[in-house]
Every structure is written in structure tokens, then in C-alpha cells.
Amino acid sequence: MADFESSDLQCLSDLGEELTCSICLCPFQCPVTTPCGHNFCQDCLDKSWADQLYNCPQCRTHFTTRPDLRKNTVLNTVVETYITRSSMMYGAPLRKQKTALEVSTATADTSTVMCDSCVEREAVNTCLTCMASFCAEHVRPHLDNPTYRAHQLKAPLGDLAERMCPDHHKAMEFFCVQHSRTICSTCLQQVHKGCRFSTPEEQKGLKESDLKSKLVTLDSKIEKTETALSQIAETLDKLKVSASSKKKMLEAEYQQIRDLLANEECVAMNMVDRQLQSEETKLNKTTKRFSQNIQQMDSAKQDICSFLSQSDTLSFLQASVDLPSVVNVDSYPPRVTLDSKNVSGVERFAGDLKDYLGDLFKQPVETRSATLKPGAVPMVQNLLQGHDQYFGGGLFQGPRPPYQGPRPPYQGPRPPYQGQRPPFQGRGQPFPLDSRMHRGQGPSPAPGIFQAPGLFPGHKSHQPQANTQKPKGRSRMKAGRSMENLLLDTNLSKPENKSTKNPETSGILPSITSPVNREDLLKYGRVLTLNLNTAHRRLKLSEDLTEASVMDTPANYPDIPTRFSVCSQVLTTTGFSKGRHYFEVKMSSSNYVGIGLAQSTIDRKGPSSRLGRNDQSWCVEWFTLKLSAWHANVEAVLEGVDTKHIGVLVDCDGGTATFYAVADMANPFHTFVFPLGEKVYPAFWLFSNTSSIALCKLSG
């Protein structure tokens, strides 16, 4: 029986060790289990984690977040059973011990180390040799007994289990620098033999120094980062203030633009009103005069009726009635129009400004300023100041787009002929030949606008200025080939190895300055038709496609790439690339009409698609009682031509196009030079609804 009780006590003792909390060293009270599998009292674990990291007090496993702890009911039942059995066998409740310990630990700090002998008093020393902590009473043997004098006494340490070597069960008194771990004396002699070592206190000092250095670095970085954040906040405030200032500035700029447009609109409306008032005054005067004429004729009519009613023959024969002088005046309504120079000018200005701004706003914002720079196009503010420039041509043409088609050999404008010019020998006589002028030698002629000097008395032509300053107003004419070369090209345009019977190359005119018989030109005559697929929507073409006029309401033509969308222009169906070709055009009026040539690569959509305002077209233009020649956005003012019948001779082999005023004789008044080998199409521009053109049906 005694042996049985002794066995039960041993079992309870072994079970008690397993049911003891490693923190309070008492049986579990409300036990909880950590994720690593160790059990603790819930209150003990909560106090242990109150001011520390979430580490397991037994295995030191670290948890990044606080684990969700729940009561281990099975273990709690086992603990209650153990306490009950122990109370029955020992006769003393174990709970009271824990209760006393709880009272003691409740008043002590969580880091307080208790005596391992009495478990009630606070330890004052820890013996690293005995690996136990003792209170003042139980440490006395270590202080008084010489046997314990070799033992190492330290300040109270609460983590003795962690200071034990798991392999040799000795205190880990050394630190292996090479492997960065604490070791015991046996480890130092066996496993870590030859490794560099130090004491944990020395290593702690080194680590503290390193951590303090890192703290200094972190403090410096934090300070710099906070300074940068402060600067960013200041920059953001300044940015908002700057944005507000720029918005106010832009608002003021756009308001000025709106004011300029409103003022220009008011000027344009007043101009139309003045023109209307002028025409109304003219009509009112005519109406008053016609009314007075009617009164005079009614008075004469009444006199005649009175005489016819007389019965006395003698009195009737003696009477005489004279018709008033107004009878001899034909009564026709006066010709009135609102298409005066000023009204047409502002109308065209408004349309060109709208088209220009529309194309400008389609461009990327970063390239718009370059378009508005002087030298590219007239400045918008100059356009809005009511200058007389908008009564002429060439406004709002924009920068010329790069030519993407095949290029002629010409690489730039040739300088004017610098040799000694021979005296003019008379009309129709060629100039003396010079070896440098012979066809086939030297570079190809430069495409451009050329006017024969002295073609008409009082001829006006813009020449380049001698100084280096940019000319004001309209651009001056570029330097090109001399008149000698031009006449020589005309006389020598027939190759010597070709038959003179070929009508395409025979019958060369002696000089472009001489009037010629129209019959000599008609043998190169061509029957042309207008290409509907290129016509602007404001142009109305006849059924046989030989006439064009301007409509008030745009037509519903399909939007295709070949159609002009900005300028009211049209090309012919047939183009010329070799030989000679002649065609004639009749105009309804010598105003707001342009006749010329264009290559197929001409722009169809942009503002630079206007005839003569690019490198791919040449144009003679009648605009507001002025005749001009245009190419590459350069204007040459010509002497007026008193005719509405124009002929054009295109010499593809010679690279020239000569314009004639057709009457009894064909009088040439201008010649263009264009690149050889490029196909050109007759082209026409119309602006006013009072203007129209008709292609003549020629037979060579």
C-alpha cells in the first residue's frame, strides 16, 4: 500500500511539472496555447506581452502580430483534476500557493526575478554556476561558505533557461564573433575551437555602438526627409499661387483677343452698313430722279390727251406739244453691289482668319508659337488691327508643309545672273548666246516667278532689297533666272535631233515678249474638263464640267482626300508632263479669280493649299483691282491686263508656262518656270459669287 501511494505521489509530481506555467511556476490557471505549441496562464502571457515583443517566453519564437489566444479546455480540465487529486493527497490546496504568488507578482514589475529557493522573495543575485537566483537569505551560503566562492554571482537574471547551452547544459559565457552566437566553455573548446570570441558584455557594447550609429544615421535621414517634405509643401503652395497667376494672365490675354475680335466685328459691320447706306442713297437718288421723269412725262401725256379731245380743227392744228428731254433717257436700274473693295476685304479677312485659327488650333500646343513667329505668317494682332493687308492675298497661309513627292535636281534659288548683260537688240530678237546659257549645261532652272523687264510701260515688280533688313508688308520676289536665260530656253526648247514636223516641238516662238498670232498657239490646243473630285464645296460645276462658279450654300460633295477643303479651288482632269499644251479661259470679271498650274502633291486640306502659296503651284491672280503672280508664297505685282480672255501655253520640255491676254493677237504678260518632269494640272481659284470661269473648247 505504501509502495502504491509512493508511486502515485511520483506520478503526480511528474504530472505537476508538465502542468506548471513556465512564467509563474505554478499550475496553469486558464491555460492558453501559443501557435508554437507551448502553454501558459492567460494572465501571465498577457503581462509578459504588455511591454515586450510578441515572443514565446519559452522558445522565443517571434510573432509579427498578437496571436488570437483561446482557453485550452482539455488542459484546463486536466489541471483541475490534478489540483483536486493533489489537495486530497497533500492536504494543502495548491491554488493558495499561486494566489500568494499572484499577490506577490501583482505588486512587482514583470521583470522582477524571484528567488528560486523560496519562490516568494525577490532575488538579489543570480549564480551562473548554479544557474539559479537567490534572495538575500538564500544567497548567504555563496557569500559565507568558501566552497561557493568560485561561483559567478551576477545581478538577478530572469532568462536563465535561455542562457543554458542546449548541448552541454552549461552557462553560455562566451560569444562567437564568427558565427554570431553565444556559446559555453565546452562549445569554445570543441565546436568553436579557433573562432574569434568575446564576452557577451563586450559584444553588447559593440552592438550598442553600432545601433547608436544607425540611430544617428536614421535621425539624419529623417531630418532631411522632413526638410524635403517641408520644401515640397512650400513648392506646392508656390505652384498653386503661380497657377492662379498664370490663369489670371491668360484670362486677361484671351479677354484682349475677344475685345480685338469684337472691335473688328464692329468695324466690319459698320463697313457693311456704310456700303449699304451708300447703295441705298444711290438707289434713292435714282428713284427720285425716275419719279420726277415720270411726272414730267405724265404732264406731257395729259397735254397730249387734252389736245386730242379738242373738237376745233384749227386750234388742234395750231397746238404743239414738245416731249420732255427725259424721254431720251433710258430708264435702267443702277448697278449696285455690296462687294466693294472694303466689304470684300473684310469678308475675306473673316473667312481667312477663321480658317487660319481652325488649322492653328488643330496643331499641337507646343508648335503653335513657332507658327506665329514673324517670318512664318503675319502676326494675328497685326491682322486684327485693320491694316490694308487683308485686302490683298496671301494671308493666313501658314508654314509650308514639306514636299513629300519626288524633288527636282534644284536644291535652292540660283543667284541672279552676274555677267555683263548685253544691250537689248529690239523686240523679238534673241540675246547673244553665252556658253554658260546653253541648254544641257549647268544646273536645272529654279522654279519661281519671273517677269520680263520692260514688258509693259510702267510695269511694277517687287525686287529684292539691297540691304539685309527684312522688307515690310508683302514679301519680295525671290531671285531667279535672268530674262536672257528665259528667252534662250524658249528659243532652244526644240531638241536638234527631233523632227520639226512634230507639232509638239515645232513652231517655237521667237520671244515671249512679242505678241503672237493666236493661230500659232491653237495648234497646241487641248480640250480640258474640270475634276469634280477636286472641287471645293462652294464651287458649282456645269454639267459638261467646263464652267465653275461660286455658290452661297456649300454643295454636299463627298469628303475625299483629293478635294480642296479650305480654299475654293479646282483642278482639271488632265495633267501635262511632256510636250506643249495650250488652253484658254474666259472670266466673267477680272476680280477674285486665279488661274495657274499645280502639281498633284499640292496640299488639299491646310491653309497653304492656296494656289501660289506653296512650292507645288503657280498662279496669276486678279484680286481687288490688282493683278499679281504668286509662287512659294511670294508675290510679284504685274501691270494690269484689260481682258477677260486668258490663254496659257505650258511647255513641259522647257519647264515654262506663259500667260497671254487673248484678243486679235495673243500678248504675253507673264511666264513661270517650273521643274522638269513633274506633271502639272491647270488649276483655278474663285472667291466671289460674282466671278466664274469657263474653259474654251479649242481645236488645234
TrEMBL record:
| GO biological process terms held by the UniProt record | innate immune response
The UniProt record lists the B30.2/SPRY domain at 508-700
Region called Disordered, residue ranges: 393-511
| A GO molecular-function annotation | zinc ion binding
Q: Which UniProt keywords apply?
A: Immunity, Innate immunity, Metal-binding, Zinc, Zinc-finger
Under the cellular component aspect of Gene Ontology, which terms does the record hold? cytoplasm
The UniProt regions of compositional bias labelled Pro residues, in chain numbering, are: 399-416
Q: What is this protein's name?
A: E3 ubiquitin/ISG15 ligase TRIM25-like
Species this chain originates from? Muraenolepis orangiensis (Patagonian moray cod)
